[in-house]
Specification:
By secondary structure, the protein is α/β, with parallel strands linked by helices. 65% of the residues lie in helices and 8% in strands. Belongs to the TOR1AIP family.
């Protein structure tokens, strides 16, 4: 009996241990399951974060790529259009001929006018180079595309009227040819002139617009009331005709003050002496300022000088 009890007792202990082992295994299995689930959660969380980062990165990159693509496309289209325009212009014989013809024509006209001035210069060996250079530059200016003012020049002489008037006529003729206009307007000063300034402007306005060149000989002979018209003709701020050349001849012999040696000052004093009695100071000063925009001195030539027109 004792042995049997011992066997039964041992059997019970084995069963208890077996139950404990099973219970322990179950607990361990639960722990493993929880641990595995936690690890899976961590993996999924990490994968989600990586995925989100990749999506954000791709979004940013895609935005940058889109901007780069847009800018690049615009640049390429712009270059293509520019190349097309350049190609069309350069390979169109009509355009090339037109551009070359205009450039060549303008250059030819300027060269021809320059050569004409040089020929005139040879006829007047006593004159200084500055005279011809000034005449050329000022007349050339008004033939440019958009002149803003006429060329106004006084040829100042001392008793050598024939030389001054001959130069004025030849240069005026050369300017007319340069402008390719019908004729030169010539006005000879006379103390008996009695037109009002408005009448003179009305008479010569259209002719000056058409011909572009006007020579006024003997400005010193024109009465002050008539000379007021040149205030309108010689306006450099709001000119009557922008593309025009106005040449005046003026005798300085009336001025006795030999201390004055600058041409502009001499011309101003002569005109003031002539018109001081008929024009008030405001009108006189304004008129003189416009007339003396460029004063060029004329020197005497040889006694046997003759003007060949």
């Amino acid at each position: 009996d004792r042995d049997q009890w011992t066997e039964e007792s041992s059997s019970d202990e084995v069963e208890e241990r077996s139950d404990e082992a099973v219970e322990k295994e179950k607990k361990e299995e639960k722990v493993k399951t929880k641990l595995s689930a936690y690890q899976d959660f961590e993996k999924n969380e990490r994968a989600t974060r990586i995925k989100e980062n990749l999506l954000n990165s791709n979004s940013i990159n895609l935005e940058g790529i889109n901007k780069t693509y847009i800018y690049g496309s615009v640049l390429i289209v712009g270059i293509a259009v520019l190349c097309y325009l350049l190609y069309s212009t350069c390979n169109n014989p009509t355009n090339v001929k037109h551009i070359n013809a205009n450039t060549s024509h303008d250059t030819s006209r300027v060269d021809q006018f320059s050569n004409t001035i040089k020929k005139i210069k040879n006829d007047f060996p006593s004159q200084k180079d500055i005279l011809w250079l000034s005449l050329f530059k000022r007349i050339k200016y008004v033939t440019e595309s958009h002149p803003t003012r006429p060329a106004i020049m006084i040829l100042l002489y001392n008793r050598n009227k024939n030389v001054a008037e001959c130069i004025a006529w030849k240069v005026g003729k050369a300017a007319r040819e340069f402008f390719n206009t019908p004729a030169v307007i010539e006005l000879i000063g006379d103390s008996d002139m009695n037109e009002t300034d408005n009448e003179l402007v009305d008479r010569y306005r259209e002719r000056l617009q058409k011909n572009g060149v006007m020579i006024v000989y003997r400005l010193d002979e024109i009465p002050g009331l008539v000379a007021q018209s040149f205030h309108t003709f010689c306006d450099t701020q709001n000119p009557l005709v922008k593309r025009a050349v106005l040449l005046f001849t003026l005798d300085r012999s009336r001025l006795r003050n030999v201390e004055i040696n600058k041409p502009t000052r001499i011309a101003s004093e002569v005109l003031r002496l002539l018109w001081n009695d008929t024009l008030n100071d405001f009108k006189l000063n304004s008129l003189i300022t416009r007339l003396t925009d460029s004063v060029l001195e004329i020197h005497s030539e040889k006694d046997d000088f003759k003007c060949f027109k």
